[in-house]
Specification:
Elements lengths: L6 E10 L3 E4 H5 L6 H8 L3 E4 L6 H16 L8 E5 L10 H8 L5 E5 L5 H14 L5 E9 L9 H4 L4 E11 L4 E8 L7 E2 L6 E5 L2 E4 L7 E2 L1 H22 L9 E4 L4 H11 L6 E2 L2 H4 L6 H11 L8 E8 L3 E8 L5
Parallel strand pairs: 4-5, 4-6, 13-14, 13-15
Antiparallel strand pairs: 1-7, 2-3, 6-7, 8-16, 9-12, 10-11, 15-16
Helix pairs in contact: 3-4, 7-8
C-alpha cells in the first residue's frame, strides 16, 4: 500500500489509567448483577474509573509522554498530535490542551471522533500525513472517560464502560511497517449505540427559543452490537490483510477493541486465529473505547509479548456505527 515512497514505523507506546478500580462485586452492590453474570457474558472483572478531579488531558498526556520516551524522541520533535476521543474535556477540542501539557511547541493538534473505532481511524489518518511527506513524527492518542456518561442503574451498559488512555508514536521510516488498512461506516445503524443530544428548549425572548446543551447517558443494544461486530470485524480484517498482501497465517497478534471477550473469541474463531495470539486485557480495564487498542498494545509490549517485527492485525468497532482494521509490524526494522 506504500505508493509514495515514504515508509512508516510505529516506534513507541504508552498508556495511563485512573487509580480507582471498581470490581464486579462492588458493582453488584449498586445494581442487580453478580461477578459470575458479568464475567460469563463479558470477560470483565474490574474497570478503572476517573473521579471528578481527573481530566482526559491528564490521562492522555501521561500516555503520550510514555510513548514519546519509548520512541526516543522529545515532545519538540512532534509535528502532529491526533487525539481520538468521544469524551473531550472541552467540546471545542482537547488535543490543544495536551499539546500544551507536553510542551510540543512544533506540533499541530486536533481531535478525531469515531468512538471505539477512533484509534484505528486516527492511525489511518496519521499515516496519510506521513505518506505524503507532510509530517515525520506523529503522536496518536486514544483516550476516553466514559464513566461520566454511564447510567449506573442500567446493568446492560454500566458493567462495560471504563476510563483510560493509550498512545503510539508513528514516524517516517525507510522501511515501511504500516502494511494495510480498511475503514468503514454505516450511519443507518447509529441507534444501536449512542450518546445522543437531548433536545431542551430555552426561551430567549417571547417567540424565540433555542436548544439547551445536554446529553443523555450511553444507550446500547448489546445484541445488535455483538451481531454487527462478529460479522463485520472479520471481513474488514481480511480486507486489510488483502491490501497488505498477507494472510491470517502471517499474523503474530490479533489486537481487537476490548469490548467483550465473547466478541474477541468469536472473531478469532471466524478468522481461524489461535486464541494464544489474541491480545486481551479487558478483564482488568473494561471497555475504554478509543483507548482500548493502544492500552492493550502498550501492556503487551512492556510485558515483552509483542516484539520488534511482529505482525499485528488491529481492529476497532463501535458507535457510528464504525469499524476498521490496520495491519502493521511493531517497531523499526531490526
Amino acid at each position: 500500500m506504500n505508493q509514495l515512497g515514504v515508509g512508516i514505523a510505529i516506534t513507541g507506546s504508552g498508556s495511563a489509567t485512573p487509580d480507582v478500580s471498581l470490581d464486579n462485586h462492588q458493582l453488584s452492590l449498586m445494581v442487580e448483577t453478580s461477578d459470575e453474570w458479568i464475567k460469563s457474558r463479558t470477560g470483565i472483572q474490574a474497570r478503572r474509573l476517573a473521579d471528578a478531579q481527573v481530566s482526559l488531558t491528564q490521562l492522555a498526556a501521561r500516555a503520550g509522554k510514555n510513548a514519546i520516551a519509548m520512541a526516543g524522541i522529545t515532545p519538540q520533535d512532534l509535528d502532529l498530535i491526533i487525539l481520538a476521543t468521544s469524551t473531550p474535556d472541552d467540546l471545542f477540542g482537547t488535543a490543544g490542551q495536551i499539546q500544551a501539557s507536553l510542551g510540543a511547541t512544533q506540533a499541530v493538534a486536533f481531535d478525531l471522533t469515531a468512538a471505539c473505532s477512533g484509534f484505528v481511524f486516527a492511525m489511518v489518518t496519521a499515516a496519510q500525513f506521513i505518506r505524503t511527506g507532510t509530517y515525520k513524527n506523529v503522536l496518536l492518542i486514544g483516550a476516553d472517560i466514559l464513566s461520566r456518561w454511564v447510567n449506573w442503574q442500567d446493568r446492560g451498559s454500566c458493567i462495560l464502560f471504563a476510563d483510560g488512555a493509550g498512545a503510539v508514536v508513528m514516524q517516517a521510516n525507510e522501511c515501511d511497517r504500516f502494511l494495510g488498512f480498511s475503514i468503514r461506516s454505516d450511519g443507518t445503524q447509529y441507534k444501536y449505540l449512542q450518546l445522543a443530544y437531548v433536545p431542551q428548549n430555552q426561551e430567549l425572548v417571547k417567540g424565540i427559543e433555542v436548544g439547551k446543551g445536554n446529553f443523555q447517558p450511553i444507550v446500547m443494544n448489546g445484541k445488535e452490537i455483538y451481531r454487527f461486530a462478529v460479522q463485520k470485524v472479520p471481513e474488514v480484517i481480511e480486507k486489510a490483510l488483502f491490501h497488505a498482501n498477507l494472510t491470517t497465517e502471517d499474523i503474530d497478534w490479533l489486537l481487537l477493541h476490548q469490548a467483550n471477550q465473547r466478541i474477541l473469541d468469536a472473531v478469532a474463531e471466524r478468522l481461524k486465529i489461535n486464541s494464544a495470539k489474541v491480545i486481551s486485557n479487558l478483564a482488568n480495564y473494561g471497555n475504554t473505547s478509543a483507548a482500548s487498542i493502544p492500552l492493550a498494545l502498550d501492556e503487551a509490549v512492556r510485558q515483552g509479548k509483542v516484539k520488534a517485527g511482529d505482525a499485528i492485525a488491529a481492529a476497532g468497532f463501535g458507535a457510528g456505527l464504525t469499524w476498521g482494521a490496520t495491519i502493521f509490524r511493531w517497531g523499526r526494522q531490526s
